[in-house]
Amino acid sequence: MSGWQDFLAARDIWREPLIASIVAGALCGFLGIYVVLRRTVFVSAALTQLSTLGIIVALILEETMGVEAEHAGVQLAVALAFSVAGALALGMALHGRRLPGEASVGMCYVLAGALVVLGANRLVHAAHDLNAMVFGNAVAVPVSDLVVLALVAVVCAAVHAFFAKELVFVSFDGETAAALGFDTRLWNGLLFLTLGLAIPVSARALGALPVFAFLTIPAAAALLLVGHLRRAFVVAAVIGVVAAAGGYLTSWFWQLPTGATMVSIAGLFVIPGLFLRKG
């Protein structure tokens, strides 16, 4: 009982991180349905790497030029710029004819990963901050980051609410959509834009590893549990919320790494789906 009393007494510490975890879990879980069904898991991995690269660039600027990146919001702004630009570029590459889309995504992922390693090697004072950002340590989320995350979530929700039919149609039956006159490049670009917006703000709060996991595991679990696409979106978002909130609370009480705990709890939801499908 004293554990819960201490937890409630410390609400000024965990309030923003817990809310950010819930919002990011729902957002990534929902978008993950597109990622999994379109077989573009590597796209989310590449965008996560690009987002991390943007944060590293901001941290290097902070160290070498004395820019107060953490306070001025430079980290998040640069991460958003890298992620959105990468999302739009990858969206175009997947519809290109000169190279297979998988090759473009693979090159982006590998090159961004290499630059992340090189950039991290240049960091001196902020190396420990980078480790938390990559592996997930949602223990201190500023109110400003939470506001940006909430705004991005609202924008993404509005886009997918108003253009749900077009995005679903173009995503899962692109050839028919193109034959009927839909601008598939435009709608795919809009979808990738929402991914490019969601990933860096979520990674800023949770870390790159949990975000990549929440873009795949809740969606996979939802698709195993339910057969209706619309329900799958809802179930994936709910799983993302439960895994994020449950992971945060478990890590708090058991003193475990936050990001890894969130990912592990998300993975538990896949097990009943596997048994249901097998039956």
Molecular structure report:
- It is a single chain.
- This protein has one domain (2-274): ABC transporter involved in vitamin B12 uptake, BtuC, CATH 1.10.3470.10.
- Helix content is 84%, strand content 0%.
- It has helices spanning 2-9, 11-37, 41-65, 69-72, 74-93, 101-122, 127-135, 143-162, 164-172, 174-179, 184-206, 208-214, 217-225, 229-254, 258-268, 270-278.
- Helix 2 (11-37) packs parallel to helix 8 (143-162).
- The mean pLDDT is 84.
Q: Describe the sheet with the most strands.
A: none
Using only C-alpha atoms, the radius of gyration works out to 19 Å
The general outline is: globular
CATH superfamily: ABC transporter involved in vitamin B12 uptake, BtuC
Q: How far is the first residue's CA from the last residue's CA?
A: 41 Å
CATH class: Mainly Alpha
What descriptive keywords fit this protein?
279 residues; mainly alpha; ABC transporter involved in vitamin B12 uptake, BtuC
Summarize the structure.
Helix content is 84%, strand content 0%.
Give the topology:
Layout: H1 2-9, H2 11-37, H3 41-65, H4 69-72, H5 74-93, H6 101-122, H7 127-135, H8 143-162, H9 164-172, H10 174-179, H11 184-206, H12 208-214, H13 217-225, H14 229-254, H15 258-268, H16 270-278
